[in-house]
Specification:
- The chain has 86 residues and is α+β, with helices and mostly antiparallel strands.
- It has helices spanning 49-61, 63-74, and strands at 3-7, 10-13, 23-28, 31-36, 42-45.
- It has one domain (3-74).
- 29% of the residues lie in helices and 29% in strands.
- The chain has a five-stranded antiparallel beta sheet with strand order 1-2-3-4-5.
- A hairpin with a 5-residue loop joins strand 4 and strand 5 (42-45).
- The chain is globular and about 35 Å long.
């Protein structure tokens, strides 16, 4: 699995050659959501409130890195790692 980050029990993944629009997968326990990189809106799925807030905070801090990771994944390259929320 192309994991780009892990923090507070939340795993962020970007899959190579995934469908548009640019997005990442946020997994927390049995919950999973797809979050658009450009608008930071939930495309599909849901997370519990606290996990959702943490994901949104993290994504807003790392949006340019997420764009770069998405582009690498679209080029069938490993998306790389992004620093966790501290």
């Amino acid at each position: 699995m192309p994991e780009v980050c892990r923090f507070y029990g939340i795993v962020i993944r970007i899959y190579t050659d995934d469908h548009s629009p640019p997005h990442f997968h946020a997994v927390y326990g049995e919950h999973e959501a797809l979050v658009g990189i450009e608008n930071l809106e939930f495309v599909r799925g849901a997370l519990p409130g606290r996990a959702r807030r943490l994901v949104m905070e993290w994504a807003s801090l790392h949006r340019s890195e997420l764009r770069d990771a998405w582009q690498r994944a679209r080029n069938l390259e490993p998306p790389g790692k992004i620093a966790p929320l501290e």
